[in-house]
From TrEMBL:
Residues 23-219 form the Metallo-beta-lactamase domain. Keywords: Hydrolase. The lineage of its organism: Bacteria, Bacillati, Actinomycetota, Actinomycetes, Micromonosporales. The keyword Hydrolase applies. The keyword Hydrolase applies. It comes from Micromonospora radicis. Pfam families: Lactamase_B. GO terms for molecular function: hydrolase activity. This is MBL fold metallo-hydrolase.
């Protein structure tokens, strides 16, 4: 696990490509005034691996942690990040407050899968990701926004919503020509997906910008502007 520079001050640490592990990548916008971490990792142990990769790359520790959306593989590592302000969309804050009240444990996961078999892949991945349920803390954002927000380092957050998650947020770093898409254009999670659900290419099309050279999704390879346009053309 390591951080690689995308462009300018944006670095990405890719998740595990095995789809059964449901491990999202994270990004860091490095800044001496305080870096911005995009997503927290899928668990406390994953967050610690990300922290080790940060140190190995010589990157500054984050001051802000931004959630691209509330799904577990993006936020369950938050409790392992000390001294950060957690920023996220208001809709995600409400959902995470409910998630925080669930009795997360192996017996609870098993009971939920027996109630709804479609939860099986996601809940098996959670069981694999968490080393100790005693250390898992689901944390809602401590600072919320509704439409857009610019952090003091010039990082811009923009709510885009969509079918994958109602709180989906993209993160734009104008000086580096990078946009971090999270999972915003993906179809709904597997347990909510129908055969008609497809990636939301129209959303990506609306986000294409000649001033943005790089498009970073959480579970997909980084695309240049030219590659993104080619992908939309099919």
């Amino acid at each position: 696990m390591r951080f690689e520079r995308v462009a300018g001050r944006v670095w990405v640490c890719a998740g595990d490509p095995d789809p059964d592990l449901v491990q999202a990548g994270v990004a860091l916008v490095a800044d001496e005034r305080g870096s911005v971490l995009i997503d927290a990792g899928q668990s406390p142990s994953h967050a610690r691996e990300i922290q080790a990769a940060l140190r190995q790359a010589g990157l500054p520790a984050p001051r802000w942690l931004v959630y691209t959306h509330h799904h577990w593989d993006h936020v369950w590592g938050a409790g392992a990040w000390p001294d950060v302000e957690i920023v996220g969309h208001a809709a995600g804050a409400e959902l995470l407050r409910a998630e925080a009240n669930r009795p997360w444990s192996i017996p609870y996961l098993r009971a939920e899968v027996l109630r709804n078999r479609r939860l099986g892949p996601s809940f098996r991945a959670r069981a694999l990701a968490v080393d100790s349920w005693d250390e898992l803390t689901v944390l809602p954002p401590t600072r919320v926004f509704t439409d857009a927000l610019t952090l003091p380092t010039g990082v811009r957050l923009r709510h885009v919503g969509g079918r994958h998650a109602p709180d989906s947020t993209v993160v734009v770093v104008p000086d580096s020509g990078v946009i971090l898409l999270g999972d915003s254009w993906y179809p709904p999670p597997a347990h909510l997906r129908t055969p008609a659900d497809q990636p939301d290419l129209a959303l990506v099309g609306r986000l294409l910008d000649d001033d943005i050279g790089w498009y970073v999704s959480s579970h997909s390879p980084v695309l240049s502007l030219a590659e993104a346009r080619a992908a939309l053309r099919g």
